Amino acid sequence: MPFVYALLMMKYYLDEIVRGDKTTDARLYPTDIRGTIALGDSSTDKVYATAELTACEEISYDEFVRWHRTGPFADVEFAPYHEGKTCYSYVFGNIRTLPVPVRIDNPSGNRMWVRVPEKVSKNFFSQKTLF
After folding, report:
1. Torsion-angle region of residue 109: left (phi > 0), alpha (psi -120 to 50) or beta?
2. Which of 23, 48, 59, 117 has its CA 20 to 30 A from that of 92?
């Protein structure tokens, strides 16, 4: 089993995805990554779920803003410098919550994609088979 990537996001949005309220993540940049990924909280570098990233689809800036305007962010104004740009929706399937969140090392401080070594990602997969 090779390394996996962890996609980090704000905990509120992560919780919406893990609960099944949303099956996508709205981003400003496309990705070529597909397959099993980890979903984590960008403020704690903890992984809470795994998912299959099945597609990256173009969406409008308005769709991007609608995706983000939920809960405590319902009235937040978004930076107008992205207006008119193409945005992207990362499409997830088979979202599985980990019974025990796993902290990952993030020495680069990257807030979007973090490469997770095999020795750590084994913990994600062993939890999937144990629970």
Report:
1. left
2. 117
Which tokens go with 31?
């990705």
E strand or H helix at 53: strand 46-59
Pair of tokens at residue 112: 């979007």
| Per-residue CA distances from 38 to 11, 55, 56, 62, 123 (Å) | 14, 15, 16, 27, 11
Per-residue pLDDT tens over the stretch 35-79: 999 999 999 999 999 999 999 999 999 999 999 999 898 988 877
User: Could you give the C-alpha distances from 2 to 39, 109, 117, 123, 126, in angstroms and in order?
Assistant: 17, 22, 8, 13, 14
Q: Are 117 and 107 in contact (CB under 8 A)?
A: no
